[in-house]
């Protein structure tokens, strides 16, 4: 199926994990893809994989926590491709430590709020300015199950991801009559470098990995490609009456 033929699709955090899977899925479905990431080398790798599929792609280095860089990312997209049809905001961080709130270092609080919440807000701001100018578009934000319920020992992550749900729902209502839909995905454990090598290092800790697997009713972690499929569906015409949704993708965990 080529649901995104000739569409211009931007994915942040597209150098790894869910963002990479989403960029590749857009490419398979006919889109021209902008691959944005803090890590340019990783973004280039995703870009090369797209080009090997005969997909037009552009890699951009961006720190989403820096307003001017986000503005430049959207400008570079429009300079190259003329418009921006779909934006999937995947870039995010989970923090380096697991601690209760009263012990949690201020520094990492600010880091996660700056990237996950303020960064996503900057992305939405400049994406929306372009989508309003061209008469429509689609935005999908990566929140988390931690945007819907608690994540013990990671209060900044839960706060930032609840915040992402808040700005998603608010923007959905603000632009509902402007041909712009805004939705969020709220996954539990997805097997990506973030959880395998990051804060909980599941790749090196079989007990923690089993606990992460058991959390889902399906008794497995999700795969980045399964989240990419949801992102594409939310961006597609098949989801034309869906806006303001914070959709769990959780193998039955929250049920
Ligand atoms: N993996 C999971 O279990 C899981 C669960 C729920 C939500 N999420 C969310 O999904 C999104 C993608 O996560 P992932 O698992 O693919 O992680 P990942 O670490 O594999 O990929 C995240 C990417 O974002 C980039 N990035 C980090 N900070 C950035 C910044 N300031 N500016 C630009 N790019 C930046 C990284 O370089 C990396 O390439 C994140 O927002 C994450 O919070 C992940």
Tags for this model:
seven-stranded parallel beta sheet, binds nicotinamide-adenine-dinucleotide, alpha/beta
- Total strands: the figure is 7
> CATH class, anyone?
Alpha Beta
What is the distance, rounded to the nearest whole angstrom, between the alpha carbons of the first and last residues? 31 Å
**Low-confidence residue ranges:** none
Question: Which structural class should the secondary elements be placed in?
Answer: alpha/beta
Largest sheet: 7 strands, parallel
Distinct ligands: nicotinamide-adenine-dinucleotide
CATH topology: Rossmann fold
CATH homologous superfamily caption: NAD(P)-binding Rossmann-like Domain
Tally of helical runs: 8
| Overall average pLDDT | 98
Identify the CATH architecture.
3-Layer(aba) Sandwich
Query: Per the principal axes of the C-alpha atoms, what is the gross shape?
Result: globular
Query: What does the radius of gyration come to?
Result: 17 Å
Classify the helix fraction into a percent range.
40-55%
Number of domains: 1
Order of helices and strands: EHEHEHEHEHEHHHE
% residues in beta strands = 5-15%
Strand order of the largest sheet: 3-2-1-4-5-6-7
């Amino acid at each position: 199926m080529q649901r995104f033929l000739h569409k211009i699709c931007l994915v942040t955090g597209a150098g790894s994990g869910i963002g990479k899977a989403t960029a590749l899925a857009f490419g398979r479905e006919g889109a021209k893809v902008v691959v944005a990431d803090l890590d340019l080398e990783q973004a280039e790798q995703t870009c090369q994989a797209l080009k090997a599929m005969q997909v037009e792609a552009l890699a951009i280095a961006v720190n989403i926590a820096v307003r001017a860089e986000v503005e430049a990312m959207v400008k570079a997209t429009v300079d190259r491709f003329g418009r921006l049809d779909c934006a999937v905001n995947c870039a995010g961080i989970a923090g380096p430590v697991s601690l209760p709130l009263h012990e949690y270092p201020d520094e990492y609080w600010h880091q996660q709020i700056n990237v996950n919440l303020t960064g996503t807000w900057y992305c939405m701001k400049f994406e929306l300015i372009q989508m309003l100018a061209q008469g429509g578009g689609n935005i999908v934000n990566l929140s988390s199950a931690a945007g819907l319920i608690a994540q013990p020992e990671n209060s900044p992550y839960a706060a930032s991801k609840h915040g992402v749900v808040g700005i998603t729902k608010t923007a959905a209502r603000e632009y509902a009559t402007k041909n712009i839909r805004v939705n969020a995905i709220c996954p539990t454990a997805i097997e990506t470098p973030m959880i395998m090598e990051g804060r909980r290092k599941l790749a090196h800790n079989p007990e923690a990995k089993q606990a992460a697997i058991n959390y889902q009713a399906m008794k497995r972690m999700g795969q980045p490609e399964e989240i990419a499929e949801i992102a594409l569906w939310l961006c597609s015409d098949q989801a034309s009456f869906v806006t303001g949704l914070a959709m769990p993708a959780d193998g039955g965990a929250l049920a």
